[in-house]
Amino acid sequence: MARRSAFRSIQRAIRIAAALLSSQYAYMLEYRAEIALWALSGVLPLIMLAVWQGSDGAAAAGLTPQGLGRYFLAAFVVRQFSVVWLIHVFEEDALQGKLSPQLLQPLQPLWRYLAAHVAEQATRVPFVALMLAGVLLLQPGLLWMPSPGQLLLGIAAIQAAFVLRFLLQTLVAMLCFWSERAAALDRLLLIPYLFLSGLVAPLESFPPAVRRIAEYTPFPAMVSFPAKLLAGESVDVGAGFLNIALWCAVLFPLSRVLWRAGVRRYSAMGA
Hints:
This protein is 76% helix and 0% strand. With 271 residues, the protein is mainly α. The model has no long low-confidence stretch (mean pLDDT 85).
């Protein structure tokens, strides 16, 4: 009896997930032009590749010119598929009262936002493929094919980095229940994210003190670790995934506590 109940629960969860993803994917397809612009806005790693290729930075970072190119190309892919914009839509929904009808439904609203992000990633695929094709036409030397194992681990690391970024931004988004400018804090976090994640430069190019500081933050796990894994560099796979899991284990309960406290405050205000 217990097994049958558990099986039915799993079936129900799968049906809900499929319905959410299909509806959100259809919704995202209506905004293909906007998503194409979003994809173009994520070309910072390619810009930094051009900057680094014009200097002797590869040797300083302990990388060959080919390795540097692969790293930034991999960082571009990681950046494209780990984008999180939860804070902006959640802040708008909370301020305009759109969150209220969602709270009356049995499905936790954050699942809808997560499904929207996953669907948006799927709609990015053709645009990212076209941009990669354009880069490789200009610089064929950057072309490489990861082994099946590296590719699978790289994809898993990208999705893990996305989950970590989603949880971090969820934590910030919960502040919308107390402030009308919670998005400002997310913009403030963008500064350490850009520099400590390895997005603008490989972490090996930074002074040892800066690298040690970066190791105590979740940011390297969001770009540097999956990018190195995808580029075929030597990296401690177990330690990298463990680091992401530990940060998720810290951020998830904190987000739940703030969510419950925030919803009580939101309801008390008559929403």
